[in-house]
Design a protein that fits this description.
alpha/beta, five-stranded mixed sheet, 10 helices, about 40% helix, extended, RNaseH-like_sf, IS481-like_transpos, nucleic acid binding, RNaseH_sf, Integrase-like protein
């Protein structure tokens, strides 16, 4: 155990690497055993190795060089809102009784799929609420997103970054790039697509959970207003407090704030 602790502290190696070195030095020790010993020594997390938290990993940032260089795509699945309910329309209202009958039949509201595309350089984001996350649906969304970005001066998307969902691995999506490089993130590593993941969090905190919705139609309509607010008025830290649209080639910054 002393040798395991020494290699961990001095070399900052993982359990797999320590197991390899010990096998070269003498009796083999399994990776699982080394992991258990590291936990007993209090060295199972890298931040525990040094008091100042230093590691031997080189932090690499994913930076977009110019508008259109990298566009990040993702789908956020959210529960659909039943069109009715006594909390929204009052007890014994026609809408509440219709919702109760639906619940009695065992029907479910299902899910809405929020497809989002965000430009990695300007943080300009486009979101739609769609019925599913299948390949053809995702391809149609990407085509509309291309048109929307083009209106803001981003006429060419050089690289698309996505997760490993079925829609992004489908044959339909594979045929779409049309000269655009498609890269999928490493499995179980959402930080590689961090810009759209962070946008999904903003979307949840400032839009989905910011108010009470009475119907799915109401939320879908409000999503159009959210697209305007996020891109033209919401301040962004990457642009010194200016909205994402200010960094586009068109420099759009005169959209009315009333959204009406």
């Amino acid at each position: 155990m002393a040798r395991i602790g020494q290699l961990r502290r001095e070399e900052k190696w993982s359990a797999s690497r320590i197991a390899f070195e010990l096998r070269e030095e003498g009796p083999a020790v399994s990776r699982r055993t080394i992991t258990r010993h590291l936990a007993q020594l209090g060295l199972n997390h890298r931040r525990f190795i040094d008091p100042n938290g230093e590691t031997n990993r080189e932090v690499k940032t994913i930076a977009s060089k110019h508008p259109g260089h990298m566009t990040h795509l993702d789908v956020k699945k959210v529960g659909r809102i039943p069109d009715g309910g006594w909390r929204a329309h009052g007890k014994d209202s026609p809408e509440a009784r219709a919702a109760a009958r639906t619940k009695t039949r065992g029907a479910r509201a299902g899910y809405a799929y929020l497809h989002s595309a965000i430009d990695g350089h300007t943080r300009l984001a486009y979101t739609e609420s769609l019925e599913n996350e299948q390949g053809p649906t995702t391809v149609a969304f990407l085509n509309r997103a291309r048109e929307w970005f083009a209106k803001h001066g981003i006429v060419k998307i050089e690289r698309i970054i996505t997760g490993n969902g079925a829609c992004y691995r489908s044959n339909a999506f594979a045929a779409t790039p049309n000269g655009t490089e498609h890269r999928r993130t490493k499995p179980y590593t959402p930080k590689h697509n961090g810009k759209v993941e962070r946008y999904n969090r903003i979307l949840a905190e400032e839009f989905l959970d910011a108010r009470t919705w009475t119907s799915e139609q109401q939320r879908e309509k409000a999503l159009e207003t959210w697209n305007l607010h996020h891109n033209y008025h919401r301040p962004h830290g990457a642009h010194d407090g200016k909205p994402p649209a200010s960094a586009t080639p068109q420099h759009v910054n005169n959209v009315m704030a009333s959204y009406s």
